[in-house]
UniProtKB/TrEMBL annotation:
Family, as annotated: Belongs to the glycosyl hydrolase 3 family.
Top-level division of the source organism's lineage: Eukaryota
Enzyme Commission code(s) on record: 3.2.1.21
Reaction equation(s) it catalyzes: Hydrolysis of terminal, non-reducing beta-D-glucosyl residues with release of beta-D-glucose
Protein name (database record): beta-glucosidase
The species this protein was found in: Decorospora gaudefroyi
GO molecular function: beta-glucosidase activity
Major subcellular site: secreted
GO annotation terms (biological process): glucan catabolic process
Keyword Nucleotidyltransferase found: no
Classification via Pfam families: Fn3-like
InterPro entries (UniProt xref): Cellulose_deg_GH3, Fn3-like, Ig-like_fold
Protein role: Beta-glucosidases are one of a number of cellulolytic enzymes involved in the degradation of cellulosic biomass. Catalyzes the last step releasing glucose from the inhibitory cellobiose.
Amino acid sequence: TLTNTRTVSASEVVQLYVLYPEAANEPPKLPKAFAKVDLNAGQSTDIQLQALLEDLRIWSEQKED
């Protein structure tokens, strides 16, 4: 749940990051989904971000998978 605790309207960018193990040789965290949310003063909303399974996979030329 995202809540605007301010007394004025505001926007926020909600971000989803994936953390891979160090052995994956990937950056420590990669952005996979985001959404811009506009909220009035005092308003709350639930946020759902989607990432496809394909977005979470990494390719290893050594293992070919």
